[in-house]
Amino acid sequence: MRTSIVIPAYNEEEAIEDVVNEVKAVRLPDKEIVVVDDGSSDGTYTIASRMKGIRLLRHAKNKGKAGALETGFDNSSGQVLATIDADCTYPAKEIAVMSRLIADGKADVVIGSRFMGRETGMSKLNYLGNVFFSGLISMLTGKRVTDASSGLRALRKEVWDSIEVKSKGLDWEVEFTTRVLRKGYRLVEIPIEYNERVGQAKLSPLRDGLRFLRAILRASFF
């Protein structure tokens, strides 16, 4: 079973090469690596274009993380789809574990949780925000999730084809997670380590927090 690993990247010139190399080292019998440059204005695309063993797609203009994931997933050939952020925060090696859980029929969606007992390099404000939103989703869906906004996840292609997400930015993860749980798909979380990001952060706690809230409520009731 092929796993397509999509790496959405926007102005990640400091980290993109390291992330791609980590993904290349993931031990899977059949994998495809798809990098989506989301209209970067730095050297991200140039660096990625020099790397072998990947498919490189490019947006002329920035479409947001959701747009980059849509482009990557829709142009992937794997029966399992996975994604990892391009900022060196997530351990790529865990994609092998996540993919096997899906291939073995034990899950439809697997999320790498930063809140299941391992060390985290997350700021206190972001930590509290993520705990709040994950708790809210758990309450609204009646199904417990500890890290609804994780950027490391894998899913069956059929799940991607069946769920319509309206979010365009960093709120994609929380809306997708909410809709997955509402539809009754089997969601499994595994504990992961989380490192401090390389490069400039793009998350605005207040602005994106409000977007997260709207996305969760939209997915819960509409």
Adjacency order of strands in the biggest sheet: 3-2-1-4-6-5-7
Number of helices: 8
Number of strands: 7
CA distance, first residue to last residue: 34 Å
* CATH secondary-structure class: Alpha Beta
- Shape, per Cα inertia axes: globular
Oligomer status: single chain
Please summarize the sheet with the most strands. Answer: 7 strands, mixed
Q: Architecture in CATH?
A: Alpha-Beta Complex
Taking all Cα atoms into account, the compactness measure Rg is 16 Å
Secondary-structure-derived class? alpha/beta
- How is the CATH topology named? Spore Coat Polysaccharide Biosynthesis Protein SpsA, Chain A
Q: How many structural domains does the protein architecture include?
A: 1
**How would you state the average pLDDT, rounded?**
93
Q: Helical proportion?
A: 25-40%
**Sequence of secondary-structure elements:** EHEHEHEHEHEHHEH
Low-confidence segments: none
- Share of β-strand residues: 15-25%
Q: Which superfamily, in CATH terms, is the homologous superfamily?
A: Spore Coat Polysaccharide Biosynthesis Protein SpsA, Chain A
